[in-house]
Amino acid sequence: MKLLKTYIILLRAINVGGHRKIKMADLKQLLLNSGYQNVQTYIQSGNVICVSEKEKSQIKQHIESLILENYGFEVTTFVLTPTDLQAIIENNPYVKQQAPIEKLYCTFLENQPDPESKEILLGFKTQDEEFIFDRSLLYFCYHKGYGKAKVSNPFVEKKLKIQGTSRNWKTMRKLLELSKQ
């Protein structure tokens, strides 16, 4: 018998500006019907907590296929364990510097950027928009807020040529809390 594990799933670029719409109640039902257990969603930006006996790579592939089949568009999916998310939260250098929580974001990248692309993006770092790479993750501190940011998720994707999804710190902490219930 395989062990059931809890996962946090982040869907990239859904329900943004009225595009690529997926109702969270419908997604929850789709996942339940597909064998996932204890499915919860959090806000409309594509955050899911569920239980499965599958491995992370299997879940990524399965959910991406389910969304393509049922909604007709591709969605890059990021799958974390509560342990993964806990480590990301604990390792945020801006939390350690006591930056205001509402200014903090994380961008999850589909894979690790090459050194040249990283250097290009680092050229856009300013006092108002600080960020630090950690493998396939970027920690951000937007001192003037995300809404005024130049180095936003689409900008990062364009410069690195890698798909990613961003979450604010409140969402990250809430997802960790929900994953432990």
UniProtKB/TrEMBL annotation:
Record-annotated membrane-spanning stretches: none
Family matches, as InterPro entries: DUF1697 (IPR012545)
Pfam families on file: DUF1697 (PF08002)
Gene3D superfamilies in the cross-refs: SP0830-like domains
Protein name: DUF1697 domain-containing protein
Lineage, uppermost ranks: Bacteria, Pseudomonadati, Bacteroidota, Flavobacteriia, Flavobacteriales
